[in-house]
Amino acid sequence: MSKTKSKKKGASSLGRDGSIVASNKKARHEYTILETFEAGVALVGTEIKSMREGKASLVDAFATIDAGEVWLRGLHIPEYSHGSWTNHAPKRARKLLLHRREIDQLFGKTRDGNATLVPLSLYFSQGRVKVELAIARGKQIHDKRETLRRRTMEREAVREVGRRIKGIPG
């Protein structure tokens, strides 16, 4: 007889393919997203183990292009809980893995100074850690207010349609 592996009830899916480890929720509020890219992240063993525990933060993270290489800075991956003296530095710069053509494209679009590279999310894909990187332009205060106003109006319209379908007077 062959035994089948069963997932324990309540077991989390952290560290599995497609699971988002960290997301930068403020980025979509602070920036207008122009284009997104998927990049691999060069990590050491204890960083992977810590991320499989679901520990990472993109709050202060940003990307830079130095000497033809793209680096992710400000990404906080805390030390692995069961690590020893081989643990990593939590705030070190991490190299992003992109094709030369993609790096040149990023450099060309951010060179003028109007756009920046912002990480949106950190996730597992086929056992490897990937980051969703965006070319973004900062929003002015009035742009942020307009976005909030538009989202509120869309939300109210969806609610009203739902009320009318159910026959509830509004």
UniProtKB/TrEMBL annotation:
One of its GO terms (cellular component) is cytosol. GO terms for biological process: trans-translation; trans-translation-dependent protein tagging. The keyword Iron does not apply. It comes from the Bacteria. InterPro entries: SmpB, SsrA-bd_prot, SsrA-bd_prot_CS. The keyword Membrane does not apply. This is SsrA-binding protein. GO terms for molecular function: RNA binding. It is found in: Cytoplasm. Coiled coil: none annotated. Its main location: cytoplasm. Required for rescue of stalled ribosomes mediated by trans-translation. Binds to transfer-messenger RNA (tmRNA), required for stable association of tmRNA with ribosomes. tmRNA and SmpB together mimic tRNA shape, replacing the anticodon stem-loop with SmpB. tmRNA is encoded by the ssrA gene; the 2 termini fold to resemble tRNA(Ala) and it encodes a 'tag peptide', a short internal open reading frame. During trans-translation Ala-aminoacylated tmRNA acts like a tRNA, entering the A-site of stalled ribosomes, displacing the stalled mRNA. Keywords: Cytoplasm, RNA-binding. Signal peptide: none annotated.
